[in-house]
Write a structure and sequence with these properties.
3 domains, Arc Repressor Mutant, subunit A, Endonuclease I-creI, 5-stranded antiparallel sheet, alpha+beta, 380 residues, 49% helix
Length: 380
């Protein structure tokens, strides 16, 4: 699995280190150079830091309270022949200089796991790139109205990087959790992306991701199912205003062996994972969440499971369904969706019976749920 070391991050990164490492580097520095002035003179051209500031850096109290620029630590390690990987293993927290958010208990080096690529997919499917004031880094904002999926987005980031400490847990109520700039920049760098790479009409799955193994491809597809899919009893449909992106997802499904179709209508592309493809997708999903539980489909998992139950019913295609519908509508007024869920039947099947019952004058329309879901009542 490919990795990113902390010195590959943005050059504004500052860190805190373990006390034992601080003691180790102090002992070596003073043993070799005797005074802080001598140390400073050797690295001052690289660190652009005043001597007054530098002489406090090696104090335990300063280290506990403040983050120190990574560049200074790297220069000090070079002075006493300490490997940068040794430094990286002893980092307890990091942040961008001046930023309010920091990562504690960091996962270093950062691993380019399926979760890493899933974050990219989430931000292509339902995200925005926020361009702050000049001189600051862009970052991701992920539009999501489902509270569980908002929380999972943050949990995925934590699994990739370590615990992200926000000033407050704003994402519990906000519909747009974000990936801090000093972390978002890694996604841009890794796949040579820019702000336009995430525009709805221009976005593409990076070619490098399309050539990865099945776990990475499945992670990307799950992200799009969470953010863009509608799930029916016979298929999962992902409709995008981006035909090329739809074709990218189609390539993923073909590589994963899912039965799918793509339909193009004007500027929209719709990827449909057909029933047999749904079964294989769901089996693959069940395996991958054992390894990456943050990938859960939440409410969509329940909906997919319910669609399979419909086809296991002994009365799935019997005429008795019509009598069940009449019986239920005698008790209360219901929509097609509500009937399908309660009877454990496809919406198409319920709609067929409803149309016939309407023609026979046995039921009538009495209202709407939202704009399109018609409420039916038994009239006899």
């Amino acid at each position: 699995m490919e990795e990113i070391d902390i010195w590959e991050f943005d050059n504004r990164i500052s860190i805190k280190v373990k006390e034992i490492f601080l003691a180790k580097i102090k002992n070596r520095l003073f043993s070799r150079y005797k005074t802080k002035r001598k140390m400073y003179e050797l690295i001052q051209n690289e660190i652009k830091f005043s001597f007054y500031g530098f002489k406090n850096l090696l104090k335990e109290g300063y280290q506990k309270k403040f983050f120190v620029p990574l560049k200074i630590w790297m220069c000090m390690c070079k002075l006493v022949d300490i490997d940068l990987h040794d430094l990286q293993e002893n980092i307890t927290a990091y942040k961008t200089s001046g930023g309010p958010n920091f990562v504690s208990n960091p996962v270093l080096p950062v691993k380019i796991s399926p979760l890493f690529d899933m974050i990219i997919a989430h931000n292509i499917a339902d995200g925005t790139v926020i361009n702050p004031k000049k001189g600051r880094l862009p970052y991701f904002g992920y539009r999501q109205f489902d509270a569980l999926f908002r929380e999972l987005y943050i949990r995925k980031l934590n699994a990739i990087f370590g615990k992200i400490n926000f000033p407050e847990e704003y994402y519990i109520l906000s519909t747009r959790p974000y990936c801090p700039p000093f972390l978002a920049t890694l996604f841009f760098k890794r796949y040579k992306l820019n702000t336009s790479s995430f525009l709805s009409k221009e976005a593409r799955i990076p070619a490098e991701i399309l050539n990865k193994n099945s776990e990475y491809l499945l992670a990307v597809l799950i992200a799009f199912v969470i953010d863009e899919a509608s799930i029916d009893s016979t298929l999962i449909a992902i409709k995008l205003k981006n035909i090329e992106l739809t074709n990218d997802l189609f390539k993923i499904c073909k590589k994963l062996g899912y039965r799918t179709t793509v339909t193009i209508k004007e500027e929209y592309g719709t990827l449909s994972i057909l029933r047999k493809g749904m079964k294989k997708f769901f089996n693959d999903y069940k395996r991958i969440i054992k390894k990456y539980p943050e990938m859960t489909l939440g409410k969509w998992e329940t909906k997919i499971e319910n669609t399979f139950k419909i086809y296991d019913r002994p009365i799935y295609k019997t005429k008795g369904n019509k009598n069940l519908i009449i019986k239920m509508l005698k008790i209360e007024n219901l929509t097609i969706n509500q009937l399908a869920l309660r009877i454990n039947m496809t919406r198409q099947g319920v709609r067929f019976h409803i149309n016939n019952l309407e023609k026979q004058g046995l039921i009538s329309r009495v209202g709407y749920v939202g704009k399109k879901n018609i409420i039916y009542s038994y009239t006899g």
